[in-house]
Amino acid sequence: MYRICTKTAHPTAIFAAEELKKYLRMMMPRAGNIPISPMTDMPRAFSLGLMQDFGLDISDAADPALDDIVYIDTDAQGGIIAGSNYCALLIAVYRYLRECGCRWLFPGVDGEWIPNRTALEPVKYRKLADHRYRGQCNEGAEFQANMLETIDFTPKIGMNTYMLEFDIPSLYYNGYYSHYGSSVREPEPVTNETVLQWKRQCEAEIQKRGLHFHDMGHGWTCEPFGIDSKLAVVPDTVPGDAQQYLAMVNGKRGFAGRVIDTQVCLSNPKAREKMVHYIADYAQIQDNVDFLHIWLGDGTGQHCECDACRKKTVTDWYIILLNEIDAELTRRKLDTHLVFLAYHELFWPPVEERLNNPGRFTMLFAPITRLYTETYAETPDESAVEPFVLNKANSPRGMADCLGYLSAWKKIWTGDCFCYEYHFWMHQYFDQSGMYLAKLIYDDISALRSRGLSGMVEDGTQRSFFPTGFPFYVYGETLFDASRSFEELTEDYFSHAFGTHWREVADYLNKVRDLLDFAYFSGLASANPEKGTYYNPEMAKLAARIPVLTAAVAPLIGEEKNQPMRPASVSWRLLDIHRSWLNGLSEAVRYLAAGDRDMALCAAKRLFHEFSEREIYIERYFDLELAFIHLSLGMVEKK
Q1: What is residue 637's predicted lDDT score, i.e. its pLDDT?
Q2: How many domains does the chain have?
Q3: How far is CA 349 from CA 167, 355, 369, 420, in A?
Q4: Which of 301, 472, 503, 620 has the largest CB neighbor count within 10 A?
Q5: Domain span holding position 85
Q6: What tens digit of pLDDT does each residue of 94-103 get?
């Protein structure tokens, strides 16, 4: 009989024990009940707790609350499973189960690969996670059941961080429930009140797992002034007395292109005071937040041009605001940790101002304009840092340029810094195989530490598992253990997802990668820009070979899609549906690359209508709304 004992009654420790019990019982369904009890001197039991509780060394963790060490020392009947903090303890449980043969290939019960065991093997394992920040941020068109599944999935692949952007993320939820990208599903409106309740439910699930909760981001330039940052349509008038606080652009104070893009007159002390008190009030109420992100408006070229604001750079005014927030939080005796952002005009480090209390802050580097045909392994080019010109500054494009700006920042910021990335926002839709993106992510993560970055949080849809979950699996596993080779990760994922024929599937997807070039879909491979961003007759020839390739793999899919392991059965079926996606997309590309936009548009509309009808079957894995937005290639018209 197996037993589990906990060294502490902390909720995450209890949850870790329950998870261990659940999966042990699933692996050994005839082994009987597995009781959980407080720690005693009971031999032959699984003992769960913090490493400190067992007198284990954690000196290699610079900050045990943030740096995850997992420790496992078990035999056939039990032993110690521990972590440097409670999230690390939960991850340690999943690492133990992984050593027993379990895998989590994508969110939800259908992604769980749980072997049958008659006995347990001894496991000895100790690992300090290679990166401090390992997680994701909500984006795209999200629905609540899927959000809860992805939170549950996060620690199972070694990640420790989850961010929820916006006070009330109605923009993202409405993207799904309004079904903007569908030609067949009718809208299902949800209220802001419902979305706020759902956010709180997500927060509770994040907290239960001991994950680091990152909150907010954009919105602070609107909400303190009575402006609803959730508005998709810009109002005709600015509410109340807010206009005086908004940025002056081209001689006028008002909204930018979108409400969320709107900036503030940061030289106005009353404007900053409103922001400071609003943010401090939020922090005082939301005391479950581990990292509160203080970002300015989204977009670029909308900062205040008044005479006072021109006296300093945008980043200098930003630092002044951050110092005032810090002072108010200190006055209220709040220890809220703040994250500041290097993004667009904030890529330029401050000229004069510095943070007064750097221990309260972490820096977030968000190179949204980078090229995804290059990686963080590029050599930083500080000579690429241009003089700052208000509302005319060009954000860096190449990775060497982006990293040059990071190097410039690091001359004045020696504190913790991690990056905010967009592989699963736009760029996954430019890789029809998932294989290019997986290798790009692997190479990006492998270079992070050499760039002084402590990890990564992905801004992307929670439905990034079509045709496979391989890119996301690589993301989580490599952030946790950067020593694993890409080849090892490939075999690990595909052998579990597709069984004995996994090599054929990987080879097939690599051929898809080679025929439907990522650079082309990224708009970087035009044969003649005067004829269009996507004009490329050679690409049309390559796309014409896709139907032959998908037809060749069809018999294998038909033979293999009924698998004894549920994740493999789902994986083969997703691969089958993906064949239809490839065939439809390749038709549109053949026309577009040859210069026939009208026929390309017709083909794209047929494809999105077909997948509107299929969406209900694959919506947990594929974000049709975000694909509709980002894979338009200039072909698809928003309905």
Answers
A1: 46
A2: 2
A3: 27, 12, 17, 17
A4: 472
A5: 4-128
A6: 999 999 999 9
